[in-house]
Amino acid sequence: MAETESGFVLDGNAAAGLLQEFFAFEVTAAETKCAACGAIQIVGALRLYAAPMGAVLRCPRCERVVMKAVRTPHGGWLELTGTEYLRF
Amino acid sequence: MDDPPISRGFRSNRQGQAPSNRLPPGQYVTSDFPVLSAGPTPHLSLDDWSLALEYEGTVLGIWSWGQFEDLPQTPIRADIHCVTKWSKLDTTWQGVMFDDLLRAAGLRKPPAPYVMAHSKSGYTTNLAVDDLVGGKGAVVTRYANSPIEPVHGGPARLFVPHLYFWKSAKWLRRLSFMESNKPGFWESAGYHIRGDPWKEERYDGD
Amino acid sequence: MTDGRTGSARRLEWQVAEVRDIVVETPRVKTFLMDVASWRGHLPGQHVDIRLTAEDGYQAQRSYSIASPPEDELIALTVVRVDNGEVSPYLHGELRGGDQFELRGPIGGYFIWTTAVGVPLQLIGGGSGVAPLMAMLRHRDRRDDHGPAMLLYSSRSVEEIIYREELDAMTRRDRDLRVINTLTSRQPEGWSGYGRRIDKAMLAESCFPPEASPKSFVCGPTPFVESASRFLVELGHDPLSIKTERFGPTGA
What we know:
The complex is a heterotrimer. Chain A is built from 1 helix and 8 strands, in the order βαβββββββ. Chain A is mainly beta. Chain A has one domain. In chain A, the strands form 2 sheets. A 5-stranded antiparallel beta sheet of chain A has the order 1-4-5-6-7, with no helix packed on it. The relative contact order of chain A is 0.23. By secondary structure, chain B is mainly β. Chain C folds into 2 domains: 93 residues, Translation factors (Elongation Factor Tu (Ef-tu), domain 3); 127 residues, Rossmann fold (3-Layer(aba) Sandwich), CATH 3.40.50.80. In chain C, helix 5 links the parallel strand 10 and strand 11. In chain C, the strands form 2 sheets. A 6-stranded antiparallel beta sheet of chain C has the order 4-3-6-1-2-5. A 5-stranded parallel beta sheet of chain C has the order 9-8-7-10-11, sandwiched between helices. Chain C is globular. Chains A and C meet through strand 1 of A and strand 6, helix 5 and strand 11 of C.
């Protein structure tokens, strides 16, 4: 399988299944403000990395981590320090 | 919970010709080399590259690319195991053993029992020094006889094949000694603090 | 079921889906029509996760867009057979009517369009990226909703245009729908359409102008999506009006 450099970045939309387990609302449709650069984005439009290990969602403008989510057999981890807010 | 339905006729195509004593539990052999990154590939010019060993803010050793290439180079052949279940056997690399890095920095013994590896991308992963010394860890610059491609962590990455491959931090810039085993990027998010594939230490709590 | 914007999402559980029919779309593409007993509906653009379990317990999981509209009873999953892939060769080569696998969904509250969202509808698809866009067009067709819509669809050759006859039939009966194909590898004798990868000029010629405020959806392989969306922004489209879905490996 040829891996192109851009081949492994996806949209936040692709993390909807994982994120669904953490939120009562459909979070990929929510608006968020990047705590690092202030850019306002829809979560589904964030850049998604590391998909098999978890979801690392980065701001398309400054590339800093907005949200990080991991689901393990023992529970889950959700880090939201890169967001200023989520608006549903 | 009900058992999931078996998909008639489905098999992993990753079941290669590996004797079972080569594969840690739950792993499958792959012949490709999947890329998994927590962020975009940084592009590093060798002119700007440096690798530092430090401890509590003090630089113990620092090398430019030229200086690093002048250090003793060791060829390595090892199996690598990713926590996402693929394993790649007999991979070949070349780089500087961690033991040689300590010697080059004039350190007869490491100043602290743990290390945080820092990538150019901001990624971090923690390791016990015991998991790096004695030939267990290296900083590698070549894979299969060629310079490591940026997507695979080039120009230099940490290489610790006896642990899950997330510990082999790509785009290595700094190895910081630390007194306590502070968790890095994945370790603080639910992954195992050490990550021994033979004990199937994938997640915190395993 | 999620509402048009964001509503509450129910906890997704794995359900059993049974193959009811298999449609050969092109030499490398098949659509699997699935009966999911407790399916509660979906919105065009959403996707599902599927999970296969081998006898030794090995599991593989993949995501596929739902190509059928909510108006249809069966869930359509359009799958390209990837050489040396793990899941798609199995689906293509082994799966028969009556076989089952696990599925969960619908997933996704972002890459969604319904007639309620409004028009003009601007769809740009590369290869199998046309699948979620087809759900949107089929929904529009079932609703007999004739606001302006266009699909710019990039395929390698005429034989590889997925849903070709159905798209032709849709455009014949709906004057508000334009489907523009570009064939990037091989063009048939007498082809007068585009014969190259999507570029800014092609988009400028085919798309609605920014002043029309189209709702844009771009779907396909990552490099395709990145260049098409960049060109749209360069042509003056509001980045927030462009929704993208990059197709790439998500499964472990």
